[in-house]
Write a structure and sequence with these properties.
Keywords: Signal. The chain is mainly alpha-helical and 280 residues long. It contains 14 helices and 2 strands. Strand 1 and strand 2 (16-18) form a beta hairpin.
Length: 280
């Protein structure tokens, strides 16, 4: 069992220590793991799992999906973290294979089960972080017609681990939303706003937009800061795509801009310039 499963340590945020609950990865009852299945169906056509990984990535880039998946499965069964992650994302997106969230869940699970908190391989940092976030998201929503049922408490713990230990902006934003909504535990607006600030400062577009909305109207007990809010909304609007997914960001920006005074708009521009200088 990996170290992180045994314990999730306490972390400090803005000087406050928050104890993180343990959230072990529970295996799917009655289901074979992807690794077991792969070992049974993939012939050892490669000298090493690393060679299989390289061949799989090259085949995938060239569009040879079948041979790419076969090679990646062999590499994943041999413990190659990148192969496990690539297969997880392939199945999650249905790239060259039928869409299969359960298989994606199994491959993401392999990554976090193999993560050694006491002796981490930091070359895999972004991959491991993404796996934690992905498993947390599956735990939050569940997977239809599978044994993976919604488990908000587990999702909260996993998001918290990725947010605190990896500084993952998506985890920080998701954790903020759960605290603000009271999902997986008690509602905690103070913690929610703090995680939201962290995600927004890292450039997370949805976090910037939500923080801007809250600061403009004074939601969740915040003191209204309309110029600061407009700065965050402007950053989010500039990064948003004109699609249905981001329409709420565009609407929030336009509504706040229309309601702001000229002084608030000019102050927002000053804040924006200072923010961009600090980021650069």
């Amino acid at each position: 069992m990996s170290t992180w499963v045994k314990r999730i340590g306490a972390v400090a945020l803005f000087g406050l220590a928050a104890s993180l609950p343990v959230a072990p990865i529970r295996a799917l009852e009655g289901a074979e793991s992807a690794a077991v299945q792969d070992k049974a169906i993939v012939s050892p056509a490669f000298k090493t799992p690393r060679a299989a990984l390289q061949a799989g990535l090259e085949d995938f880039r060239s569009g040879a999906s079948d041979s790419a998946v076969a090679a990646l499965k062999y590499a994943a069964a041999g413990g190659e973290t990148l192969a496990q992650w690539k297969l997880a994302t392939i199945y999650a997106a249905g790239q060259g294979v039928p869409h299969d969230d359960l298989k994606a869940y199994e491959y993401f699970s392999q990554i976090i089960e193999g993560f050694d908190e006491d002796n981490p391989n930091w070359r895999d940092r972004s991959i491991v972080s993404n796996a934690f976030v992905s498993i947390a998201t599956y735990s939050l929503n569940g997977i239809a017609q599978s044994k993976v049922k919604p488990d908000p408490a587990r999702a909260l713990a996993l998001f918290k681990y990725a947010a605190a230990n990896f500084g993952d902006a998506t985890a920080q934003y998701s954790l903020a939303r759960m605290y603000l909504d009271g999902a997986g535990g008690d509602k905690d607006s103070r913690q929610g706003v703090r995680w939201l600030y962290l995600a927004a400062d890292k450039g997370h577009v949805q976090a910037q937009a939500l923080l801007g909305q809250m600061l403009f109207t004074g939601d969740e007990g915040l003191r209204p800061q309309r110029a600061r809010a407009l700065m965050w909304l402007t950053l989010a609007r500039e990064a948003a795509l004109d699609s249905a997914k981001d329409q709420w960001i565009i609407d929030a920006y336009e509504k706040s801009l229309a309601a702001a005074t000229e002084t608030e708009r000019q102050t927002a521009l000053t804040y924006l310039e200072d923010h961009l200088k600090r980021r650069n």
